[in-house]
Amino acid sequence: MAVSKESIWHLRVKFFAKLSDEGPPDSSSGIHPADIAAIETNDDWLGRFLEHNENNEQEALHMLWETCAWRQKFGVNDITEESVKRNYLEDGLCFIYGKDKDDKTMFVIRCKLHTKGSKDFSELQKLVVYWFERLERYTNGNQISLFFDMADTGILNLDMEFIKYLISLCKNYYPNFLNYIIIFEMPWILNTAFKIIKSWLPPKAIPKIKFVHKNNIHEFVNPNDILTCWGGSNDYVYKFLSEVQNNTDATMNGKLDNKKVHFAEGSPLTEQSPTSFGDQADEDALLSIKPKTITFNNTGFEIAGTIVVKNTTNDKPLSYKIKTTSPEKFRVRPSSGVLLPFEERSVSVILQPGYNIRGLLHKDRFLVMCLPLKDANMPAEELAALWKIEKPTEQHKLRCRDGETESNDVQNTHSILSPGMSENGKSMDTLFHKVAQLQHSNAKLHSDMSFLRYTLFFSIIVTILTAILVVYILRIDNESSIDDQACHIPRGI
């Protein structure tokens, strides 16, 4: 539903008039300055309140007022990754990953990793708000989809209070936030529970719920983002990465989409065409990078590539940093440092254990950046602060390729990084996928066997206790019978 500029202006005026007449919702703490600034300047945010309430300005005003009160009371603007329990961030219960069919970012909740009461609920609430705020920054207020991964879950994994909290956030405090609620592999035993969950949603949100399985998940999730455990071929493994902000945007988990290249610990940079992949002309560059494409080879102990970075100036020390779109796959040594004039350094890029070279994607990228320094001996703390406040002077983007399959002029035809993968390469990829599936099945079988052992042990204990109880009862009955006989002995005998 379209929202007019006039409606946004009316909402803004009404809010500040209400604030002037009544004072803040919580007079002891007021409204956070960041939220006041957003109401003053952010038309998109105000427009979402109007869209959420179908252009009803009074209802939008009420929701905006209540949202500001909640944000101040909960301390939303002060929540950072340092204030959230670290193990909650790292265990992978919920995280940002992939896009739905409408190119909306997905917030994944892996239900099998949670049981009711296993986490402090107030800390769990803070975790969700942290991710929602991070999503707001990452998507610039665009809609998201909740993706409930319910594979291998049971009754114990369904925390109704947690789900109700997620819904209440979207319903009351994050307007027009939901695109879809995608529910993957929901067990039939939870059907009744989800009828209750549906009752918590407003009627217009019911059509947003989509139940999917491995055979139809591609209808609602971008095929390139379907993980192997969801029936796809993407081998992404969640690993928490800190959000590093600057004036433009923030990086989410090293995720690469079709429009931007996201480098871990850096800002998204618009991808250029292959013919102009470097940002700086070689003759004008302060930093020289050779080669422009990192070639990975098997050295016997590890799979690695090498690049050489060189300071081409005659009077400026340079600080350099190297980032990658896939930090979970690669180890870079050294990933940062200081180069004196004309100094060069060899940098190793090593494929992490657990990743096969055939898992290298055509989208994997590396970014080499540099900053001129006044003092080559600048303390590490000052250097780290400089990188936070200064934009890199240069940015050089590098591709990857597999050196093992390179053969003279036919590299592009047979390299696993090229679109035309050989039949042997495809067979190997299928083999690795089958091995991963077997490992998953083996782990599930081991878990089932453990459960059966516990069940058998419990049954034996119950049987023994039952037998003891039966013997005890028979003994009591027998003693009672003897006493009765003694009581009826004829007199005079």
Radius of gyration: 31 Å
Largest sheet: 9 strands, mixed
Based on DSSP secondary structure assignment, what is the total number of beta strands? 16
Q: Which residue ranges are poorly predicted, with pLDDT under 50 across at least 5 consecutive positions?
A: 245-262, 265-279, 407-429
Content of β-strand: 15-25%
* Secondary-structure-derived class: alpha+beta
- Helical region count? 11
Overall shape: it is extended
Set out the fold topology:
Layout: H1 5-22, H2 33-41, H3 43-52, H4 57-74, H5 86-90, E1 94-99, E2 105-110, H6 121-139, E3 144-149, H7 160-173, E4 178-184, H8 191-199, E5 209-212, E6 260-262, E7 268-270, E8 287-290, E9 293-298, E10 303-311, E11 318-324, E12 330-333, E13 336-339, E14 344-351, E15 366-372, H9 380-389, E16 394-402, H10 411-414, H11 423-487
Parallel strand pairs: 2-3, 3-4, 4-5, 9-16
Antiparallel strand pairs: 1-2, 6-7, 8-10, 9-10, 10-14, 11-13, 11-15, 12-14, 15-16
Helix pairs in contact: 1-3, 1-4, 3-4, 6-7
Structural summary, described in words:
The structure is a single chain. Strand 6 and strand 7 form a beta hairpin. The longest helix has 65 residues, at 423-487. By secondary structure, the chain is an alpha+beta fold. Helix 1 packs across helix 4 (57-74) and helix 6 packs across helix 7 (160-173). The strands form 3 sheets. Strands 8, 9, 10, 11, 12, 13, 14, 15 and 16 form a 9-stranded mixed sheet that branches. Strands 1-2-3-4-5 form a 5-stranded mixed sheet, covered by helices on one side. A two-stranded antiparallel sheet has the order 6-7. The model is unreliable at 245-262, 265-279 and 407-429 (pLDDT under 50). The chain contains 11 helices and 16 strands. It has helices spanning 5-22, 33-41, 43-52, 57-74, 86-90, 121-139, 160-173, 191-199, 380-389, 411-414, 423-487; strands at 94-99, 105-110, 144-149, 178-184, 209-212, 260-262, 268-270, 287-290, 293-298, 303-311, 318-324, 330-333, 336-339, 344-351, 366-372, 394-402.
